[in-house]
Amino acid sequence: MMNAPVVKLGIIAVSRDCFPESLSVSRREALVAAYKAKYNAQDIHECPICIVESEIHMVQAIEEVKNAGCNGVVVYLGNFGPEISESLIAKHFDGPVMYIAAAEETQNNLIQGRGDAYCGMLNASYNLKLRNLKAYIPEYPVGTAEECAEMIHDFLPIAKALIAISELKIISFGPRPLNFLACNAPIKQLYNLGIEIEENSELDLFEAFNKHAKDTRIPEVVADMEKELGCANKKPEILPKLAQYELTLLDWIEQHKGYRKYVTIAGKCWPAFQTQFGFVPCFVNSRLAARGIPVACEVDIYGALSEFIGTIVSGDVVTLLDINNSVPNDMYEESIKNKFNYTHRDTFMAFHCGNTASSKLTSCEMKHQLIMARSLPEEVTQGTLEGDIVPGDITFFRLQSTADAKIRAYIAHGEILPVATRSFGAIGVFAIPEMGRFYRHVLIEKNYPHHGAVAFGHYGKTLYEVFKYLGVPVDEINFNQPKNMLYPTENPFA
């Protein structure tokens, strides 16, 4: 997938000078061997020049992993470790850093072979906090070589997301549509997260689109669209304009990403878009999402950011959907009750006009956008990709700035049920345990907008660590709490 970094982690072992350095060397070698035996050897680089015992060693080690092309670091406490110099690695390395520690191997070697890294991890975390440094520490950060190798592998998508965010530019077009203030949020938190944003006028986009009217690449893009759609190509007359628009966006990205490596887009799609451009952009948005360039509808900047994070973490296509409508009682009774372990209030339908990639639809068809066509000529509302979304595990999530520029997030695991929606748009029947309570006491209570990002699989563990590393307060990373765990605003007598 394009628009994403490749991560290479430098493994830096540390040693307290009153402990045997050989213990950290042998444990580092065992860790690297364990990782290479199970995972891709290209993910990591062993730093063999020195074991970090001092500040000078720290500088040397950072220089070595940088020269080896590493953009993330694993600090490995082979023994107790030097609390100052090991914490300075996180200060001076420009990238995500993880701390893990070696478990003791055997009861038969607890004199010269005892490393005390269990204790050393406490001092490392204390020193990181003293210096206000960010680092990833796993849920249980002490393990055997094999266990630590697994922790490193779990860190890869976290590091990948953090690196991508640090090099991200969000490109937006136009203000949020009238009556859609829910998608409007201050951009201050984007800068706090290290993200750049370029806000453009719809008129700028329209001018660029018109300049592509005779682009010689249009037939090639049309042919690719036809191949993707197959028999679902019910609106062939609109494909040249959609191809023209796709080329406009791709060229804009190349010309405007500046010094940033990665880009996501928050685009305008109504109300004037259809009458001026002559189509709706849904299918193009879905195609860019399939390439790893999510395009959020309705100029939803934080929706675009959420989609991008989901794309990086999952390594797969994501989508952005409205948390849209309740499941009718007769649908629940006929297709869900006694077939799936969900109450009626656990279910809902998530929808958007047609921005979901064709690969994530059970079947698809190019149509006109029904809601817009109720008030506009049908011919200017063509270009939406409709179909039921593929069933399976999902993560519904969002990173959001509040109106007063505070950062918060939610994450919920669930699934899309194999139930026919009998509706329109890109849509699915979703089930999230305790969704009714989550809807009331998180989504409504904390003023989240109606858009949520959807990753296809369960990625809550990784997303939680990414949000935490980015600085989202842990009490503001919300999740769908089980029945025996009340929300702060939940009436205990209800």
What does this structure look like?
- The protein has 494 residues and is α/β, with parallel strands linked by helices.
- The chain has 16 helices and 18 strands.
- The protein has helices at 21-38, 55-67, 83-92, 117-130, 145-166, 188-192, 202-211, 218-229, 239-256, 272-277, 282-290, 301-314, 329-335, 370-373, 435-444, 460-470, and strands at residues 9-14, 44-46, 72-77, 97-102, 142-143, 168-173, 196-200, 262-266, 295-296, 318-325, 347-352, 365-368, 382-388, 392-401, 407-416, 426-431, 451-455, 477-479.
- The strands form three sheets. A six-stranded antiparallel beta barrel has the order 10-11-16-15-14-17, surrounded by four helices. Strands 2-1-3-4-5 form a five-stranded parallel β-sheet, with helices on both faces.
- β4 (97-102), α4 and β5 (142-143) form a beta-alpha-beta unit.
